[in-house]
Amino acid sequence: MTGALLEIADLRIRFAGAGEVVRGVGFALGRERLGIVGETGSGKSLTARAILKLLPRGAAMSATRLAFDGIDLLATGERAMRALRGRRLGLVLQDPRFSLNPAMSIGRQIEEAWRAHRAGSRREARDKALALLEAVRIREPQRVHGLYPHQVSGGMGQRAMIAMMLAPDPDLLIADEPTSALDVSVQGQVLSVLDEEVSRRGMGLILISHDLALVRSFCDRVLVMRQGEIVESCAAAALASASHPYTRCLLAAQAELLA
Question: Tell me, what's the pLDDT at 258?
């Protein structure tokens, strides 16, 4: 892909005693929505964390190429990676209860995310935090700004997490099962917020999920992973007619659940 935002070639991740758990993964990403689907343990989240170089202890990674906007991440040290992670690479995790600081108000956390990568006053940071809370469709942003994570619902906490990740205005957002801990009625709201912000900001998005129907409706392209490998790559609109037997089994299984 010419001018790709992200390029990965022959990514491999291994654990001592367990062998390779991600094998030969490769793809390119532009400023688009890419879904990565597969069963639990298929390597989806490890692949995403490899991009951020945030793999669990004991994991060893290698790749022929791992580049973000022309930057060789394989040759990038931890200090430079910390700057990239917050400023240009964002990560939204599954459950805000484990992502937000319980001892700090929601507004202050968003302000700190902004000030870590921007030169500005406390007043400017507060104004930005309030604007972000409003952007992710939180009613009464002034009130929610002063609340702590345990004082808000799961859906509101997830939207606050998205606001915090959007504060530095990243180029690539990785959302790892961002709606699986939410009620169905709230899932659509959170995805709609992501959709609006990705479109408005012109970001790249990687959405990790086990829900094929979700990525088919939300993403531009889909990668299907099985046992650490990509077994299928297709346009999201063509997912229903995917040809790989594993993808067909996933589609059939989810159709039965929805029947």
Answer: 45
Backbone angles phi and psi of 62, in degrees to 5: -145, 155
The burial class, CB within 10 Å (0-12 / 13-18 / 19+), for 239 is buried
User: What type of residue is 214?
Assistant: L
pLDDT tens-digit readout, 18-61: 899 999 999 999 999 999 999 999 999 999 999 999 999 999 99
Q: What phi and psi, each to the nearest 5 degrees, are found at residue 198?
A: -65, -45
Q: What is the pTM of this model?
A: 0.88
For 1-88+173-181+206-259, CATH gives 3.40.50.300
**DSSP codes, 111-171:** HHHHHTTS---HHHHHHHHHHHHHHTT-SSHHHHHT--GGGS-HHHHHHHHHHHHHTT--S
**Count of residues for the chain?**
259
Q: Where are the domains of the chain?
A: 1-88+173-181+206-259, 90-169
pLDDT of 236 > 90? The answer is yes
Burial of 102 (0-12, 13-18, 19+ CB in 10 A): exposed
pLDDT for residue 259 is more than 60: no
Contacts of 256 (CB under 8 A, 6+ apart): none
Q: Which helix (H) or strand (E) holds 33?
A: strand 33-37
State residue 256's pLDDT score: 60
**Residue reference for tokens 């030969």:** 24
Asked if 8 and 65 count as a contact pair (C-beta separation under 8 A), the reply is yes
